[in-house]
Amino acid sequence: MKIALLRQAPLSMLLLPVVLPLPLYAADASNTMVVSAAPAASGLSELDTPAAVSVVSGDDMRQAAPRVNLSENLSSVPGLQIQNRQNYAQDLQLSVRGFGSRSTFGVRGIRIYVDGIPATMPDGQGQTSNVDIGSIDHIEVLRGPFSALYGNSSGGVINIDTQTGQQPTTLEAGTWFGSYGSWRNSLKVSGATGDGTHAGDVNYTVSTSRFTTHGYRDHSGAEKNLANAKLGVRLDDASTLTLLFNSVHVKADDPGGLTPDMWRADPHQVASNVSIYNARKTVDQTQVGLHYVRQMGENDDLSVMMYAGIRETTQYQSLPASSQSSAAHPGGVIDLTRHYQGIDTRWTHRDTLFSIPVSFTGGVDYETMMERRKGYLNFSNNGTSTDYGVMGDMRRNERNLMWNLDPYLQTSWQLTNKLSLDAGLRYSSVYFDSNDYYITTGNGDDSGSTSYHRWLPAAALKYAFDDSWNAYLSAGRGFETPTINELAYRSGGVSGLNINLKPATSDTIELGTKKRIGNGLISAAVFQTDTQNEIVTDTSSNGRSTYKNAGQTRRRGLELGLDQQFAYDWRLKAAWTLLDARYRTNACGTANCDGNRIPGIARSMAYAGLEYAPEQGWYGGAEIRYMSDIAANDANSVKAPAYSITSLNTGYKWLLNNWTLDMFGRVDNLFDRNYIGSVIVNESNSRYYEPAPGRNYSVGLTVTYAFQ
């Protein structure tokens, strides 16, 4: 797990600003230090960051893995609940300290960045489908109060950086085949001219992959084509320019959820209306970015990140035709086109004040998204017969616009040799405006607008007992607005926007400690988060959800993590999360939910993994994951049972001159447990459960050639 880190600023300072590059990790080898869970005698690490942060290397993500989903090798991160729905129409279910658990599709409550470009829109809605695991350099998961400094949707931050090309030029081809007709083929080329220190030096990494599957469940097939490119140029001695490109196409069937009785009878099945209406989704996204970094002097840096993209989504839901009879109903087919763009500009200055080393970072982040949302009936009637699962008459047509303009400032002070202070402040302003173009009898003008504004402070004190052990105390305020999808529908089938939905505000305090033990790191953190107006699922039916504010909630938790290397080729990773997340007011209407668990959140998660990984020859590993029961509704009357699953892998790596061949095999869910992979919170038809596969197998082969 080795990463290059900018020498000039502590990791905490680079984590805090809105857009994570200046990249957290720079390509200039002459100005970097090596960082790992077991750092060298000199160098910065996760140890020095006054926040709960975990770093997972790209090599760890790819080790004996399918390289399809982020959920494959992130279970060792404390506080992160990441689950594969076995439903590529709805993306992964991902939450940090319980934030994001309400999501029935995509990612909410968490900011995601890929090479500095937000994979989270200005409204807080994010997705992971454009992440190419084959080209990941490292992933950082930031939890706790400092997440607030990224603005809207700040339950946590996930930053993904892809590889920067270097000499020699390498060509890599990979293939993987698994159960349920699943396979992936991939190709990657990377290289550089020069060492990156001279004007005109260029580096590049280009990758592409194709994944298809029949799916574990009926009606759950999918295909995904992905391309990613990163081109860097050193313009002169003081500046670099990086061009980023990403494109993804996803076509997936949507199996929906099952009732507890249906799951027990046959976890492979789907509800009858899913097949009748051929529930499915198609997504096409293309984006480009340009990142300019300039060292203005010995103590000053300028960073400018610009990006733009388009995302087109067509989703056929399994809503019954009878429920669409009202003139105000928006239909069972959703057709979205989203244009998004943004620019983040920031300045960093390092100096001394009263003989105290100090640094300041100030900047402005502007993001905007324009959405054209159309709705259609999911059936067509020609007078003599009815066709289901096709695009029928239009029932909705509107233009939605959401944008934010956020100035921010942060500072870091090394008060003494042992005591440091990090602090930051962001003023987040999010604006929403909708123009309704579908106005008919029984469906009036539903245009509307609103805005949200919050000051977001965060601060941390860190005390270093010695070079290998420290403790920190941090606090901050987070802010989460409703997404456009959460504003799109009102409960009870009433037309119009859910404009009365309020933003959630969270206050967090955290106490943590980290200790380096030999070639390893152990960390612990306890925290409490109190939230006002938490946004939770009101109803969810046939793929469509509505949302409401839940008043007050509280999360209390403990996170423990261990990453220990021993005997050179052996490595042990372990994590345990205890999270008590509860309503503090009634969120159930007539029933009383005060004191109930917030649905979708596990009270306890545990992970242990042991691997033997020499540079070449035989390697292998074993891991076990535990997840406690998860409440599926506000009343806590239905819960997905607790489970433990075990996985094994083994492989052989050959190093032959310029060739590297890596062949592996793995078995997941070794003991064939029947368990629920994820839940659909408050599903109105009681189809809460999304089942996970039983015992399944896969094999893979990667061949790499270095042109030396």
Describe this protein's structure.
It contains five helices and 39 strands. The protein has 708 residues and is mainly beta. The strands form eight sheets. The protein has a 22-stranded antiparallel barrel. A five-stranded mixed beta sheet has the order 3-8-9-6-7. Strand 21 and strand 22 (419-436) form a beta hairpin. The two termini are 25 Å apart.
Number of helices: 5
Biggest β-sheet strands, sense, barrel:
22 strands, antiparallel, barrel
Stretches with pLDDT under 50, minimum 5 residues: 1-44
Helix content, binned percent: under 10%
Compute the number of strand runs. 39
Short structural description:
Helices cover 4% and strands 56% of the residues. The chain has 708 residues and is mostly beta strands.
